Amino acid sequence: MKIIVTGGAGFIGSALTRHLIDHTDAHVTVIDKLTYAANLESLAPIAESSRYKLLKLDICDPQTMVEVITEEKPSTIMHLAAESHVDRSITGSRAFVQTNVIGTYNLLEGARAYWNGLSDERKDQFRFLHVSTDEVYGSLGAEGFFSETTPYDPSSPYSSSKASSDHLATAWQRTYGLPVVISNCSNNYGPYQFPEKLIPLMILNAIHDQPLPVYGNGQNVRDWLYVDDHAKALCLIAEKGNPGERYNVGGMNERTNLEVVERICELLDELKPSDRPARSLITHVKDRPGHDLRYAIDASKITTELGWKADQTFESGIEKTVHWYLNNEDWWSVLRKGVYAGERLGLETQTAAE
């Protein structure tokens, strides 16, 4: 089995790649542009494997995608490469459209050209897994869950670009017969996450005795999914999912943003006590524009049809995560010093030329 993982040096992509090398016999080729959010240190645990290969390539280059897919001859393409941070999409939406929409189009076309040349048996075995987000569904009220049939209603430039790529993936399955499967996941967290995201940002700010910025009143709700559980789900979907189907992947761990930050503070007070409680650093700041109130996923389809369930609760997963950041300063200190120091993003007005 040969698998291409796009975006394999990112947070979820590296977790997936590590899982594939550690727990399957697959040969894995990572395609990654190595932008600010990619980190080769996240792949260091499997870098010496003879079944792992990294190619620094841009999915926005259509000819290169055709060539690399043809040369690698994959049985599966797992497409995770994306611009993914909502705040960055507010002030720099062009990169999100270019990568998430045009890049996905290039991969679908490259995969289609390759797939059309396969034997009937290999055509039947081939899968293109398009990995997406629950943010395409928009915002929930106090009750209810996103299901695979929930209408799309994206709010941000990021979620709109992902919704667009989902529609492209669906169309390539329906129009051309390309065996595409789509997954939509809830908020991921865990080791190796880039520090602009909520959980690592709060951990690292607290360690440095810096304010913990909570948007608005902190009552926005997210369903939290431990990244290793997500990696296992993606492998199951790629192996057993039916072409043309989509599968929601959620942790069934709803928490308000404020509850998440408060739990991090409690853990840090236990594990790395300071002169004052970490909770005293919590600072409510101006809310994000278009901030969806609540996301919650109904993951019963993947559980019933494919036999997946999350191993980690939020309590077990957040403890593992805080421990990891405390014990891996070498990984995150370089990022905090040279790439992202914790500054607020997403409030400036974007110009059309950007």
Protein model, in words:
This protein is α/β, with parallel strands linked by helices. The protein has a domain of 247 residues: NAD(P)-binding Rossmann-like Domain (Rossmann fold, 3-Layer(aba) Sandwich), CATH 3.40.50.720. Helix content is 42%, strand content 16%. The protein is built from 12 helices and 12 strands. The protein has a 7-stranded parallel beta sheet with strand order 3-2-1-4-5-6-10, with helices on both faces. It has a 3-stranded mixed beta sheet with strand order 7-9-11. β5, α6 and β6 form a beta-alpha-beta unit. The protein is globular and about 65 Å long. The termini are far apart. The C terminus is likely disordered.
